[in-house]
Write a structure and sequence with these properties.
The protein is mainly alpha-helical and 63 residues long. It has helices at 9-27, 35-57, and strands at residues 2-4, 59-61.
């Protein structure tokens, strides 16, 4: 479900910062030793970045 909302640049920037922090932590992790955690972290980074883009454009996606 796609809904129009008021663009929220502050939340979008916060999500982007959180994604960058997760990416920095991921760089320090042994990815071969913890493949499941690595996969979850990459999914989380992508999810936060996509949500950040939609918030800047004033769109909320559920489902």
């Amino acid at each position: 479900m796609i809904t129009k909302i008021k663009p929220d640049k502050n939340k979008a920037n916060s999500l982007k910062k959180m994604a960058l922090i997760t990416l920095e932590r991921l760089k320090e992790t042994n990815m071969e030793e913890y493949p499941i955690n690595t996969l979850i972290d990459f999914y989380d980074i992508i999810h936060k970045l996509l949500e950040s883009i939609t918030l800047k454009k004033g769109v909320k996606i559920k489902g």
